[in-house]
Amino acid sequence: MIRAILFDLDGVLVDTDTLHYQAWKELADRLGISFTQEQGNRCRGISRMDSLEIVLEGASRSYTQEEKETFAREKNARYQQLLSALTPDHAAPGAHALLPELRRRGYRLALASGSKNAGLILERTGLGQWLDAVADGNLITRSKPDPEVFLTAAGLLGMSPHQCAAVDDALAGVQAGRAAGMLTVGFGDAALHQAGDYNVQALEQLLPLFPPLEGSL
Ligand code: BG6
Ligand code: MG
Question: Which residue, by CA, sits nearest to atom 13 of ligand 1?
Answer without folding.
Answer: 115
